[in-house]
Amino acid sequence: MNRLGYLLIAILFAVLSLSFSVIDNNSNTKTITDFSLKNVDNKKVSLSSYKNAKGFMVIFTCNKCPMAKFYSNRLNTLNKYYKTKGVYLLAIDAMDTLAYKEESFTLMQKKAKADKLNFPYLQDKSQVVAKQFKATHTPQAFIIWKNKSGKYDIKYEGAIDDNAGDAANAKPFLAEAVNELLQNKTVTNTKTESFGCRIFYRGEPQKMKTN
């Protein structure tokens, strides 16, 4: 099957369990509280682990989602480039491990090894961090940027880019926002539309409803 075929299957799968982000550029700035999550190397990672960080690209992703699978190489490229500028990439799997055996920590470790991930792949087993970001699906990207008080504000939310199946012809929303922040500019597009596999929050049946 060619790449287009895989993309069509991914889109169909995503639609069946889909969550769309809603663009709302009038929302107030949200500050993110520091968190500590277990990485696939069994070490804890927190925002405060990065003393020289200007900001972070936080990507909610997972093992099983077809849309998320398109982005491993692109995320490696983003992290390799921007970490030299003090902007680090953190990937977080907040899928309910009780509902999805494919999201076990062991399989996260296998994915990280198979995809040669060069960034932390963190398990949010309690889903506390995902709730703080109000993450709804995978893949979903956020940029958090250090403010004058040393805390981190969300500056961007949405898609990594606009073309999962063709990286070469994709508009790089996430990278464009990081570049503007590095130039001390206001982010032009603070939110972009994105879609992927829904994050179902354990113990909250109302989240199962279709938007």
Task: Explain what this protein looks like in three dimensions.
The protein has 211 residues and is an alpha+beta fold. The chain has one domain (3-208): Glutaredoxin (3-Layer(aba) Sandwich), CATH 3.40.30. The protein is built from six helices and eleven strands. It has helices at 3-16, 66-69, 72-82, 105-114, 128-133, 173-182, and strands at residues 18-20, 31-32, 36-39, 44-46, 55-60, 87-93, 121-123, 137-138, 140-146, 152-158, 195-198. Strands 2-10-9-5-6-7-3-4 form an eight-stranded mixed sheet. A hairpin with a 4-residue loop joins β3 and β4 (44-46). The longest helix is centred in the first third of the chain and has 14 residues, at 3-16.
- Roughly what fraction of the amino acids lie in strands? 15-25%
- Round the Cα radius of gyration to an integer and report it: 16 Å
Largest sheet entry: 8 strands, mixed
The total of beta strands comes to: 11
Contiguous runs where pLDDT drops below 50 for at least 5 residues: 12-26, 206-211
Per CATH, the superfamily is: Glutaredoxin
CATH hierarchy: architecture: 3-Layer(aba) Sandwich
In N-to-C order, the SSE pattern is HEEEEEHHEHEHEEEHE
**Per the principal axes of the C-alpha atoms, what is the gross shape?**
globular
Find the CATH topology. Answer: Glutaredoxin
Task: State the share of residues found in helices, binned by percent.
Answer: 25-40%
What is the CATH level 1 assignment? Answer: Alpha Beta
Side-by-side strand order of the widest sheet? 2-10-9-5-6-7-3-4
Supply the helix-strand structural class: alpha+beta
Number of helices: 6
- Report mean pLDDT, rounded to a whole number: 88
Distance between the termini: 32 Å
